[in-house]
Amino acid sequence: MTETAMRNTVTHEPGPAVVSLEGVSKIYGDTVRVKAVNQLSLRIGAGELVAIMGPSGSGKSTVLNLVAGILPVTSGTVRVGGQNPADLSEEEAAVFRRTRLGFVFQDFNLVDTLTIQENIMLPLMLAANESPARMRRRSRAVAEQLGIGDVLAHRVHEVSGGQAQRAAIGRAIIHGPQLLLADEPTGNLDSAAAQDVMRIFSDLNERRGVSTIVVTHDARTASWCKRVVFIKDGAVHSELYREDDRLAFYDEILNVLKLIGGEGR
Ligand SMILES: Nc1ncnc2c1ncn2[C@@H]1O[C@H](COP(=O)(O)OP(=O)(O)OP(=O)(O)O)[C@@H](O)[C@H]1O
Ligand SMILES: [Mg+2]
Question: Which domains, ranges and CATH numbers included, belong to the chain?
């Protein structure tokens, strides 16, 4: 997507659905069966920044993996950008994930033997048609945007947790995905670094219209989002929408968490 096209997608009203789950269930295992997601329906509009919260084991990561097409559903329908991952061949699904989606994981998932710059460039390296000079330029621009331009030559063990998480975000956004999925992206960070990460997501969302789903246990992290979906026992329990005041929203989120559990880790 060009810069102009990205700017044009910015909207504060939920646009057409970028993700829709209809009556989705996921059962793990054959002999011991665990119903992780139970008849869950959820719609995320284009340009939304949404948090998913809920007690441990409520199915949050499973939902994210179903959206990503990493896991197949047991029943129900998932659509991402109008596509049902189940209709794609394995190869098509891999290309879809690589070009249209970005992932950020709690444990960063960076490659230790590569530098920060090489880690950020990885998605471009997989995309055959990129010149090395362009990849270096793009990765430097993304790193600078994320405030880690000075550690590009460092290896993963030579940067802080917050810098590693920013590198993981850089890798997730370098190819201009339409949908960013993050599972506990602030779980391993102190509160200052966690706020920085959410500021980055918020900025990408507002300035570039990147639709974003953030799974988190942390009410402060969730308070950066405009909507919080609470999941309990594999189904949507309730939702909150933010007005203007982030601190008031934080209090509202804490109140729901008290009700359903899932506060803290
Ligand atoms: N690969 C798997 N095989 C079997 N059961 C699984 C598997 N992955 C998850 N589960 C089970 O499915 C349920 C939902 O798990 P999931 O990881 O989605 O929860 P979560 O909400 O992300 O929890 P947490 O907050 O602890 O990360 C849990 O009961 C979990 O034990
Ligand atoms: Mg999880």
Answer: 3-109+177-260 (3.40.50.300)
